[in-house]
Amino acid sequence: MMGQIIGTYLVAICLIIGSAFVVIGVIGLLKFNDPMTRLHAPTKVGTIGIGMLLLASMLQSVVAGDSSLHELLILAFLFVTAPISANFIAKVHIHGKSCPPVPKPPLDDTWSTLKTPSDES
Amino acid sequence: MITASGFLDFALLIAFVALGIGQILSMVRLVLGPTPGDRILALDTMVINGLGLVVVLGIYQGVQIYFELSLLIAMLGFVSTVALARFLLRGDIIE
Asked: How far is CA A67 from the centre of its chain?
């Protein structure tokens, strides 16, 4: 009985932490004034915010008696795909000229994403 | 002294309100967004907030059946983000 009460408090604390991160990330998405800076804030929504909500869901299923770890699958999927979609959006910003031009790499001629087919010989 | 289930109800209310505020503010960024990349980012954030809403609804009702729905939302959100970004980058999704 005591464990159930502590588990319920843990579920509530995880929910509050997750929703705080969601609100902070979305305010950052709205208030920042540079496209590349705006890309930085909502990734916290995808990892820590939703991660805490899924952790609360797992703890709730343990407290309710039928424990399941299915939410770990969603968590792993989100953690794998968040950097990939952020990389794609950063490429859209670079190629759409909506951010300052990237500095030259120290050793090579240019970045591979900016290379045109006529450069390859 | 507040009881444990009362505290959980309070936290669920906070989570619903926070995710709703998240949807509204990212929709503002979707309408304002000066560049196409910002609009893609706002759509991605809206999909992630919808996933969070479904998860919190599952906690609120105390059922497990929302698991498949949230997994499907996560996969569709990733695929649509990549398809939109790739369309803007190359002018074509599958070459």
From this structure: 26
